């Protein structure tokens, strides 16, 4: 299995009724690991059915395949349907490039820094 | 019988006119082909991806941005061959053919023993169908790899039936320096971000 590490933490200071989770992804998301790794994100979504927003810190994300983009799209659909936001923080150029070619940058906003990404979901 | 030098030159000229002038291809312009046979396990794909990035950056004339794009193209093609085209315990074949500063071709071949037996003609039709389906607002889970990643980042896609079963996918990208320069320039499209 290709190495990847996903860690999830709470972001403090969220407005009342909102829950903001910061998800750090380090490594490569590919066919060998993405199904297993996606479970932890679905668990967060299921335990926070309303008011959840997700900030993906992808500074350390080196590669993502089309299936992992499919998962990201699904998370976006579920979270936005419940009134939340999904944003990316500091993606590498190759990650932004692949998200752009599939059209996902028109749905999920990307910010050059973690602070800017957090600020975008706190509004 | 001795031949007069003038007659000899005439004979050579006639022969050249018949067969054409010999064309000498400089060594660094000759295509380089590297072939890999890989078990049908996704575990091996990270190694292939590293190999593709390094080969593209160092041997083809394509930019680093294209190296990462080819990494994704090869990964998607290999994954399709493993997931749909070849059963567990089989192998897939991957070949890269680089003509430096001109083109890069990738060929991926499966065994046709996978869970979804499909012909080259059906694959070509599937590609066209998915190109229509996957728009910018598409929220489906699957179906982006072939039409968007492979389709958008290559110039040619050819599907061929392999005798004995299986499909061979050939994709080719031509190096266009002006395209690289445009890609490297600051992007003005507000829908995506430029990282400094």
Model regions low in confidence, pLDDT < 50 over at least 5 residues of chain A: none
Outline of chain A, from the CA principal axes? globular
N-to-C span of chain A: 38 Å
**What is the percent of helical residues of chain B?**
40-55%
The appropriate CATH architecture of chain A is: 2-Layer Sandwich
Report the span from N to C terminus of chain B. 77 Å
- Would you identify the regions of chain B where 5 or more consecutive residues have pLDDT less than 50? 186-196
CATH superfamily of chain B: Histidine kinase-like ATPase, C-terminal domain
| CATH topology-level fold name of chain A | Transcription Regulator spoIIAA
Oligomer description: heterodimer
Helix tally of chain A? 4
Tell me how many strands of chain A there are: 6
| Greatest contact between two chains | A-B, 36 and 36 residues
Radius of gyration based on Cα positions of chain B: 22 Å
Number of helices, where a helix is a run of at least 4 consecutive DSSP H or I residues of chain B: 6
Q: Write the element-wise H/E pattern of chain B from the N-terminal end onward.
A: HEHHEEHHEEH
Helix fraction of chain A, binned, reads 25-40%
Order of SSEs of chain A, N→C?
EEHEEHEHEH
According to DSSP, the number of beta strands of chain B is 5
Which fold name fills CATH's third level, the topology of chain B?
Heat Shock Protein 90
The strand line-up of the biggest sheet of chain B is 1-2-3-5-4
